[in-house]
Specification:
Length: 210
């Protein structure tokens, strides 16, 4: 799926100019990397709704800039402290022949049929919600699936257990190693405490009768 965004070259710059753009329903931004940085502005409603899509944050994007197209990634954006308003946005150019470093979200599957949940009474905890990867732009996945369908009570899924799409590798300098826990299933703490209290009450009962 190709995600396109439309932008114009921003001629007036500075705090005052950016404020006027926002009042006019535009968002100031910058495109940088492999060449000169270019100041741009975009339609606020278009970019606001695209930012609500998970795929927009983890996809290679096509930027239409006054008749020319560039391949870019979303790198950063700033929201107003209390309004639903995008204040600024940054994009980075992508070289289609160079591997890139990107953080992508994890999608957890089959939680309800995991043995540790279905028969063990456990609860799944998501420890990691996204993953640092490297790949060519054409191989960038919108997300990575984590199948929890065979997870037993007291067991965990680690980064090394994940099935990565073709061409995708864990980032060598990322925040997670192969041993890092992605998800685990444990008996809820409240249930453990309740079971312990019940056992203590049962042990005390014979003594009370005596």
């Amino acid at each position: 799926m190709t995600i396109e965004i439309n932008a114009a070259i921003r001629k007036a710059q500075g705090t005052g100019a950016s404020r006027r753009l926002r009042h006019a329903g535009r968002v100031p931004g910058v495109v940088y990397g492999s060449g000169d940085a270019v100041a741009i502005d975009l339609d606020h409603n278009e970019i606001y709704h695209k930012l609500r899509s998970e795929a927009f944050h983890a996809s290679v994007l096509t930027l239409n800039l006054e008749g020319k197209t560039e391949t870019v990634l979303l790198r950063d954006f700033v929201m107003h402290p209390f309004r639903q308003q995008v204040q600024h946005i940054d994009f980075q150019r992508v070289d289609v022949n160079q591997k890139m470093h990107k953080k992508v979200p994890l999608h957890f599957l089959n939680e309800e049929i995991a043995p540790g949940v279905k028969t063990g009474g456990g609860k799944i905890s998501h420890v990691i919600h996204d993953l640092d990867i490297t790949c060519l732009p054409k191989d960038l996945p919108a997300f990575i699936e984590v199948d929890l369908g065979k997870l037993e009570l007291g067991h965990s899924v680690h980064v090394a257990d994940l099935k990565l799409p073709n061409g995708v590798e864990i980032a060598a300098h990322g925040t997670h190693t192969g041993e890092a826990v992605v998800a685990t299933v444990q008996v809820p703490r409240g249930a453990v405490e309740a079971a312990a209290a019940e056992a203590a009450a049962e042990a005390a009962a014979p003594a009370a009768k005596k």
